Amino acid sequence: MANINTAGVDPTKMGVGRAIAVLTSGGDAQGMNAAVRATVRVGLYTGAKVFFVHEGYQGLVDGGDHIHSATWESVSMMLQLGGTVIGSARCKDFQTREGRLKAASNLVKLGITNLCVIGGDGSLTGANIFRTEWSDLLKDLISKGKITKEEAKASSHLNIVGMVGSIDNDFCGTDMTIGTDSALHRIIEVVDSITTTAQSHQRAFILEVMGRHCGYLALVTALACGADWVFIPEMPPDDGWEDHLCRRLTDTRKTGSRVNVIIVAEGAINKEGKLITCDQLKDLVTKRLGYDTRATILGHVQRGGTPSAFDRVLGSRMGVEAVMALLEATPETPACVVSLSGNQAVRLPLMECVQLTKDVTVAMSEGRYDDAVKLRGRSFENNWNTYKLLAHVRPPETKSNINVAIMNVGAPCAGMNAAVRSAVRLGIIQGHNMLAVHDGFEGLAEEKIEPITWNTVGDWTGKGGSDLGTKRVLPGKYMEEISLNIAKYNIHALVIIGGFEAFSGALEMVQGREKYEELCIPMVIIPATVSNNVPGSDFSIGADTALNTITSTCDRIKQSAAGTKRRVFIIETMGGYCGYLATMAGLSAGADAAYIYEEKFGIRDLERNVEHLTEKMKTTVKRGLILRNENCNSNYTTDFIFNLYSEEGKGVFDCRKNVLGHMQQGGTPTPFDRNFATKMGAKAVLWLTEKLKECYRHGRIFANTPESACVLGMRKRGLVLQPLAELKEETDFEHRIPKNQWWLKLRPIMKILAKYQISLDTSEHALMEHVISKKPPVHMTLKK
């Protein structure tokens, strides 16, 4: 979370007397508008003047009408638009010193000394050159009589902050660049559509996705759709790959699959550095195997369309952080780029990131492909390792004689099937026998247990809901039957995929170990619920899909008011007592308020919100959006809030209400949920395999330590396993939520973006982190 230095500075006065300009440069990316909107609104909140620069660096050079002041209303209704509203252009002029002189003169004349650049590594490098030359450019301008000494003195130093907008996710140092998630949404929509037609005709499909120098989109697509093969520039296939590929495709067909999918990044190469193209692959598959093969090049579809919820929240968070970084910068601080590591906002030295990004290209050109994958960062490396694990089609000859059971517990959500699929397949690769338990703990008690095979789960990645069947029933009353069936089916380990019931049910199982020895087996819980309320994880599988459903519905609802004047919508979201969905949807849909259980509110707050909306209606923005979590307050119901707003807003605005209901649990999983579930399923089984080795004594499995029953979760910057016993202390069981929730720190951002004059939290400061010192120089690692 963006923060302010704690020296008692009033955040609403930080920017007084300062001017910030924001521009988008290079290739456009969905979510850039969210970043522009946040930069403008937070800049204005701090008291700074904010300027738009239209058409990227070209606008900076041309000046005039290209640079003009931004207002609060001028960024309204921008969130849901793809591309960049302020325009972007490739600019030759700015690459010359003459062009940069003009740009400097234009900025000095307007008193702008803070520049926020949203673009790729080329755009950000250009910004840094501009900054290093700044004092020399001012001297030249004075000597040419273009500016006065006084003007130069007032603008003696230029601060620069970058945000990376690039659908390729090719910038080192950041886990996700703005636009990547939305591009994946476009790709997966196409893959899903193609798969259905391919199955009808038993076809092989080859899809080319963007990524000239970076295989991120191709790699995540391959994971998210369970592709047979992926070609990426960072890791060319071994010699003889043609035979291997054909063998893989025929093996897939032998297992009963009617479709083959091959994903190719546009920059994919072989070991000689020659391009591997769609046509080449199509010829190969058609000639060697005689399959009916089609090739599709996605092209600019990937850049288009509305930004995903993730990109809107990312753009908004980065925009806030960028303004704070600019206003806190001194002449000594290096130009920085604001970025995301796990779910934390971080600031990184711009040129270190650019250097790392260049190092990848060098490593690839020198054939050091393992180094290239490492330099891409932890997230890329994890994706690559998971892909390699799941790419096998041939299970090992030797069996482990271990039986691992998998079950879904709680309400269904998108992504559960993807987690089951990767857990089943990885278990089979490890030599285990995999068992499916239908209908949760009740099914475990009622013997709804059967073997589950490699082929059964073949096409499960993109399926919504739960194919195993899921129930909310807890195991407490069935302990006797459950322990008998664990013994009867000789179950050695348990994977429980689900929401809060999975967590509390597993706790009951652990307590039952005292009485029933059969329950002394390793267990792992994979959080999967739209509510995102499982202790031990910042994210749950299914929450991203639900969030996108809510966001797109809010977009439509807001749009329905475009023709009418002054309308406020009150929308109820799911989540139990957890306000995650309401808060994040508030950020991604641009809500005026989001009522949640975790942040207590009373009649005064409701009154203030109504007054706020009444004021808003006097401007050019004639729409309001209020979100309410279903259990935020038992007395202030959705109907109550609707009636209150309707009465108080009489003559100013009218109200409509929507309860979104179960549509939030349905739909096909988003790319994030597919990828997250795939990695979680694989990691869970790898952990169980290790635990089983530890717990094997005297010819049997016996696990009764707290460490043998864990929640696998995403915490800050990576996947971690935490014992249920530890997490018990961190849980509010009455309201089924963790006692501490990271996303509450994002709520002030939502309020500031809705024009509330509140104070920002100053406890967590995003300090500058170094990216290069973390890794030994590449040439050193080679010599060792």
Summarize the structure.
Beta-D-fructose 2,6-bisphosphate binds at residues 472, 529-533, 567, 574-576, 630, 656, 662-665, 736. The chain has 784 residues and is of the alpha/beta class. The chain has four domains: 19-176 and 307-358, Rossmann fold (3-Layer(aba) Sandwich), CATH 3.40.50; 180-302, 3-Layer(aba) Sandwich (Rossmann fold); 397-541 and 669-737, 3-Layer(aba) Sandwich (Rossmann fold); 549-665, Phosphofructokinase domain (Rossmann fold, 3-Layer(aba) Sandwich), CATH 3.40.50.460.
CATH third-level topology of the largest domain: Rossmann fold
Secondary structure class reads alpha/beta
- pLDDT below 50 for ≥5 consecutive residues: which ranges? 1-7, 774-784
What's the tally of helices? 25
The Cα radius of gyration reads 27 Å
Q: CATH top level of the largest domain?
A: Alpha Beta
- Work out the strand percent: 15-25%
CATH architecture of the largest domain: 3-Layer(aba) Sandwich
Portion of residues in helices?
40-55%
Distance between the termini: 40 Å
Query: How would a crystallographer describe the biggest sheet?
Result: 8 strands, mixed
The average pLDDT score comes to 92
Number of strands: 27
- The gross shape turns out to be globular
- Domains (count): 4
Region (C-terminal regulatory PFK domain 2): 403-784
Binding site for substrate: 166-168, 203, 210-212, 266, 294, 300-303
Protein name: ATP-dependent 6-phosphofructokinase
Cofactor: Mg(2+)
